[in-house]
Amino acid sequence: MTVGLRGGIGNATLSRDMPRVEQGEGGGSRFGVVSGIDVGIPLGGAVDLRVGIGLAQKGGGADSPPSVTAGRAFVDATTELDYLQLSALLRASADAEGGFLNVGVLAGPYMAVNLSCSIALTTLFSPPGSGEYRSFGGRPPWGTETSCDGDARANFRTADFGLAFGAGAEVKLGDSIALAFDVIYAIGLTGIDDDGTRNRHLALQSGLVFATG
């Protein structure tokens, strides 16, 4: 068995059944962090089961909430969703370089529980004639956030289900420790709101893997 400690960065987008006029399909992305711990359980041969739990920051472009009543064309809105994510990924691997390097592919389901939800608003260009426009040359450097609960159109569900797949490599550093690198893409299979919005998430992560027996 192994225990892995991993962390990295992720790029998240939102996919919709019906593209919105304001944003179109996807409508932007959100960069965030990923971190977690997992246990690798040997299943025989070159296959093991990686059961993990961790933090995944997802989201993407959103419509400006109704609270923005003026200058909507000058405001960029991004939904920020933070999840506690559980996954069970099968990993098929093979050794290379005399056992110094191990490479493999991963695939399996995940379930995520929403921890927080907010909509970040960033002013792109203030309307001509406003004080901010004259003071900052059209790019006022400020932003704000509003809770998703304050907008009836942005009430996201508390759970997300989907599939994750990717590839990774482990470089042996000692008898019981290895340096790991993974690229994992997660596709949400269920809508997280009434518009059929689904999560898409690409994560690049690294960490240490310890052999426990």
Q: TL;DR?
A:
The chain is mostly beta strands and 213 residues long. It has one helix at residues 131-136; strands spanning 2-15, 29-44, 47-62, 75-96, 101-123, 143-147, 159-172, 177-188, 198-211. The protein is elongated, with a radius of gyration of 21 Å.
Describe the structure.
It is a single chain. Strand 2 (29-44) and strand 3 form a beta hairpin. The protein has an 8-stranded antiparallel beta barrel. Residues 21-26 and 130-142 have low confidence and may be disordered. By secondary structure, the protein is mainly β. It has 1 helix and 9 strands. The protein has one helix spanning 131-136; strands at 2-15, 29-44, 47-62, 75-96, 101-123, 143-147, 159-172, 177-188, 198-211. 3% of the residues lie in helices and 64% in strands.
Write the topology of this structure.
Elements: E1 2-15, E2 29-44, E3 47-62, E4 75-96, E5 101-123, H1 131-136, E6 143-147, E7 159-172, E8 177-188, E9 198-211
Antiparallel strand pairs: 1-2, 1-9, 2-3, 3-4, 4-5, 5-6, 5-7, 7-8, 8-9
Mean pLDDT score: 81
What helical percentage do the residues reach? under 10%
Order of helices and strands: EEEEEHEEEE
The shape, in one word, is elongated
Distance between the termini: 5 Å
Strand order of the largest sheet: 1-2-3-4-5-7-8-9
> Number of helical runs?
1
Segments where pLDDT lies below 50 for 5+ residues? 21-26, 130-142
**Which structural class is indicated by helix and strand composition?**
mainly beta
- Work out the strand percent: over 45%
Largest sheet: 8 strands, antiparallel, barrel
DSSP E strands, number? 9
